[in-house]
Amino acid sequence: MKTLRLRSAGSVLGMLLFLLSTPLHAQRVTGQIAGTVKDDSGAVLPGVTVSLTGSRLVGTRTTVTNGNGYFRLLNLPPGSDYEISFRLEGFQPQGRSNVRVSLGSTTSENVTMSLGELTETLTIIAEAPIIDTDSNEVGANYGRDWVESAPVQRLSFEDLVAAAPGSLRGGDRSGRTMVYGSSYDENSFQLDGADVNDNFFNEQLAEPNIDAIEEIEVLSLGAPAEYGNLTGAVYNIVTRQGTNQFHGDLNFYTQPSGLTDENTDDGFAFDRDDYIDYSAQLGGPLKLDRLWFFASYQHQEDGFSDAGVDPAIGLATEENDRYFAKLNLHINDRHSLQFTYSRDEAIEPSSLSPGESPSTKFSRSRETPTPGLGYTGVLSDKTVLDARFTGFYSTVFLGPDDPSQPPDLPRFYALDTGDISGGHYYFYDLEPSRSTLNVKVSHLADEFLDGGHEFQFGVQYNESEAGGVYGYNDFVLTYGPGYSYGYGYTRVPFSYSGNTEALGLFIDDTWRVTDRLTLNLGVRYDSNRAFSKEQNELDINLQPTGVVFPEVEHYTWENISPRLGFSYQLTDDGRTVLKGHVGRYHRAIATGEFANVVGPSIKPIFAGFYDLPSGSFDDLFQLTDNSNLNIDPDYEAPRTDQFILSLEKQFGRNIGVNLNVVHKRGRNFAAWRDIGGIYEDFVWIDGDYGCADPVSAACSIDLDGDGAGDLDGQVDPGGDPFATGTPITLQRLIGGDRDFLITNRDEMDNDIWAASLGFVRPMANKWSLNASLTWLQSEGRTPDSGGPSSVQQRGGLQFRNFGRNPNDFVNSGGRLRGDLPWQFKSQLVYQLPRDFLVAVNLSVRSGANRVRRVSPPRGVTNLRTRILGQERGTFGRLPTQNLVDLRLQKDFSFGNDKSIVIIADIFNVLNDDAYEVVVSSDSTSSTFNVPDDFVFPRRVQLGVKFRF
Q: Among 652, 687, 719, 750, which residue's CB has the most CB atoms within a 10 Å radius?
């Protein structure tokens, strides 16, 4: 079967290469304009010549209305300066100006033409598009007007997508987002059509300069069959391009420490050391009407120490350099090429927590070149071929913040004081990469099966890898004055690899059944193969030993994903539309579930006593290896079914209101399963720790499995003031050889209900407003459901052992981490007189669920066990978060479209002091529910921009 599968993939790849060698653009990096032309009586007008011009087009695009008076103009770059004219002999010409095309959307332009002599064209300013009557998708678009005006922290596109309805940011400074209850590793990230998901974590790797972004589409729900290997949202980021005119801008931003406030007086407050951010953009023609370019560069330095950390030792300075270039070659009216190149270089240092010594600081450096080559061929006025070859080829290193410090310095944890010294937990040197080839054909069938159809057929192929070298530093637990006693863990570094090979086929059909009813039909097939390539065994010095581990096959997922939706215009004017969608979505392979866990190259962990004077272990014994860690050969792709019902209403020329009701049903998600251990039920009373002797087997961990405690420091925690006294049924290990599988489990599911009410007013008459209110209820389990209080929610098993202990399922099936009942968001831009501008970004959301974790004595389960004492969602919430960001801006214009812009951004205007996690969620800890990770305080960012 493997040979046949690879031969099939090779045949498809050969076919794609053949297509590329003849006529190639990006996948969904454009929009389109469509509409119906009628006369004064309401009769449709076939044969009308429709002509389109715009700064992002070379020459004029022309089409003719069909027998139903319908026209469609495909593959249009996002922009707001398109001009359309309508001409038919015997009728007065009509025109539309300032027509906006949004990424991934259809702009409707319906026209009525009157009988009369050919005179000067009657041109009116087009309405901003509010409702896409051809689509049932739920999402948001952020065009250049908001990208340029938004008061955001400039952390790349993550700042912008966090504003979308139903999108939950993983923290005030986090780039992770969870959309309508899904986890942050379930999304798909597309940069100019390039898939930039790292297959290890299933998170974005490339981060473009925000000043190089033209538009962002957040496709939250109802993605068509063109998109696969996701169970969350699609983020489409399209960058700026050159035109026939030179244009550009220079930007400089700083955040002075003197304009940074404090929002906590508990110990050290947040301290701003330095912030510098500058960028330069330039675009224009290398040859008029033929070859255009756009180039961008950004440099950022962000230095701060977090709340609770001494600035003298806890300063962290993050640096980013972002390069971008794009070339657009117009071969002729029908064929064009596009080349893109993005490169991110980042240094991301850690900060220190109280009790950590400076030597424990670490940093992560990353370089991510992302090239892309695309082709668009207009094969006829009804058929367009898009194809693109893209990829990213990254290098990532994590090690000591001090480059002179050895990466494998032992780490020491003092049990009596809680102080941490020595090095970091681990180091790694990785090379994640992805190569992708996409080919898509769009074809209009005017009168086929009783209606007009827009078909899209596509083939997608990619190969990706995440692998390299991993090293876990010696971890030593010490106890007593002068560190008189020590024991801990050691492990030899190892190499690993997590590879995937994926083939996807899809067909989408936008079927205009009647003037009012449009159906969206689609289905896709995916074959995703997971394997680990050949690996060298390494010695303690990271050198090959001569032993080579062969390639290992893990599993292949074969998935069928049907999608069905409708859009029905309840009124003749198309301003009230009812939409619905039902679709199945399958998660992408996350190689982090197995890459550095399963396989012969992964090294075991040893434990023993540590001789502090000599700095070496004595009497080591093997604590764990991975010989009992495997993957279920029948492991299937986790899936989510979406059910959506939407009502959209347009009022007047520029105001829209929408209501979305959503149900997402996630099934087949993964956890570990112990298939060898033998267990029995045991009823434990919450709060009964039942021992006071710190060396008893019931109170300490049995490292070597001999039934005796090994003094690891888990001593009698004393009384639990939050204990409920309720009986909890646990699983006690009584025999067998424990053997673990990564597998689908019935317990790993989720049910999400949500509703969002949105208000949309695109820029018109000098102001725009987007606002949304979202209600969410999400229940079920993810691999971090047993974890502490936090809003960040991961859906995969990357760095998770959930399920190896059957007690992980106790009380963990309540509300999900990302379950926040209420979110309100608003983005306002208002152009004041005298070229002043004000922009407001408002976010109000519920706090994360508090949890209470407890650790029954070892003798209760014969395992080290930590469970939730009560289900998540029953122990209160962290504080509500109220964040208001404000921009004040003044333009000074002078000749030839030049201007200087003075900017003042005020973040967290209200100086909210909400915190996003707690120091500990263990109810016997002295730091239980102590606030930690406060949102950044009020601070002012000053900027200046020169446009030309």
A: 750
**Dist CA 3 CA 13 (whole Å):** 15
Catalogue the E-assigned strands of 314-451: 316-330, 335-349, 362-378, 383-393, 395-400, 411-414, 420-422, 426-430, 433-445
Sign of CA dihedral 666, 670, 674, 676: positive
Q: What token pair was written down for 380?
A: 């006829």
Tokens of 456: 């899209």
Q: Which residue has the tokens 């959309």?
A: 179
Cβ atoms of 838 and 889 within 8 Å: the answer is yes
pLDDT tens digit sequence for 853-886: 999 998 899 998 999 999 999 999 999 999 999 9
Tokens read off for 168: 């939950």
What is the distance between the alpha carbons of residues 753 and 800, in angstroms, rounded to a whole number?
26
Amino acid (1-letter code) at residue 306? D
- CB-count exposure of residue 382 (10 Å: 0-12, 13-18, 19+): middle
Cβ atoms of residues 495 and 538 within 8 Å: yes
Instruction: Read off the amino acid at residue 744.
Output: N
Residues 6+ apart with CB under 8 A from 222: 135, 136, 137, 138, 563, 565, 581, 583, 642, 644
- 453 — phi, psi (to 5°)? -125, 140
Q: How far apart are CA 3 and CA 721, in angstroms?
A: 62
Q: Is 10 helix (H, G, I), strand (E, B) or coil?
A: helix
CB atoms within 10 A of CB 712: 17
Q: What is the 8-class DSSP label of residue 715?
A: -
Count of C-beta atoms within a 10 Å radius of residue 163: 23
Helix (H, G, I), strand (E, B) or coil at 542: coil
Per-residue b or e along 490-518, where b marks 16 or more CB atoms closer than 10 Å to that residue's CB: bbbbbbbbbbbbbbbbbbbbbbbeebeeb
Q: How many CB atoms lie within 10 A of CB 625?
A: 12
Token representation of residue 552: 């290992």
Mean pLDDT of 497-510: 96
Query: How far is CA 47 from each of CA 380, 383, 839, 918, rounded to the nearest angstrom?
Result: 17, 19, 45, 67
Burial of 705: CB neighbours in 10 Å, binned 0-12, 13-18, 19+: exposed
Tens digits of residue pLDDT in 698-725? 444 333 334 333 333 333 345 788 999 9
Phi, psi of 815 (to 5 degrees): -70, 140
141-174 pLDDT tens trace: 998 888 899 999 888 888 888 899 999 998 887 8
How many C-beta atoms lie closer than 10 Å to residue 544's C-beta?
12
* Cβ atoms of 585 and 469 closer than 8 Å: no
d(CA 585, CA 668): 12
Asked if 384 and 74 count as a contact pair (C-beta separation under 8 A), the reply is yes
CA distances from 658 to 103, 131, 314, 772 (A): 19, 9, 47, 9
Tell me the DSSP string of 151-165. Answer: -----TTHHHHTTST
The dihedral built from the CA positions of residue 221, 226, 229 and 234, taken in this order, carries a sign that is negative
841: tokens are 């970004």
DSSP per-residue letters across 31-61: EEEEEEEEETTS-B-TT-EEEEE-TTSSS-E
Residues 607 and 620: their CA atoms lie apart, in Å, by: 5
- For tokens 């239980």, the residue is 928
**CA 223/CA 139 separation, integer angstroms:** 10
**Which residues make beta-bridge pairs with 842?**
826, 884
For residue 483, what pLDDT is reported?
56
Least confident of 11-20, 227-236, 579-588: 11-20
- C-alpha to C-alpha distance for 477 and 487, rounded to whole angstroms: 5
> What ranges in 574-618 are assigned the alpha helix state H?
none
- Beta-sheet pairing, 122-125 with 94-101: parallel
Question: 512: which 2 tokens?
Answer: 């205009």
What pLDDT does 937 receive?
A: 94
- Residues linked to residue 752 through DSSP beta bridges, in sequence order: 664, 778
